[in-house]
Design goal:
Number of strands: 0
Bound molecules: zinc ion
Distance between the termini: 43 Å
Strand content: under 5%
Number of helices: 4
CATH class of the domain at 23-78: Mainly Alpha
Structural class: mainly alpha
Helix content: 40-55%
Order of helices and strands: HHHH
Radius of gyration: 18 Å
CATH superfamily of the domain at 23-78: DksA, coiled-coil domain
Largest sheet: none
Length: 81
């Protein structure tokens, strides 16, 4: 290991990187941020934890797996990811 190796790579290395499914990391992060902001907005309106499509309660296991989840299990199956 050379002396400079411990320095973490900065910005440009992240930009342009892609996830295994080909989605650019940056786009993925922006999408996650948008989902989280939407979840926070639902919280402030007292709608957090309710499905956007059918208005039924989203199961706790789903919210624990993804706190920004917006659909119940039934609706998530019918909507393409
Ligand atoms: Zn639903």
């Amino acid at each position: 290991m050379k002396p400079g190796d411990a320095t973490p790579a900065r910005g440009p290395r992240i930009t342009g990187e892609t996830l295994p499914d080909g989605v650019p990391v940056r786009r993925c992060a922006e999408r996650d941020l948008a989902r989280i902001e939407a979840a926070l907005a639902r919280m402030s309106h007292g709608r957090y934890g309710f499905c956007l499509t059918c208005d039924s309660q989203i199961g706790l296991p789903r919210l624990e797996a993804d706190p920004a989840e917006a659909l119940c299990a039934d609706c998530a199956e019918t909507v393409p990811a």
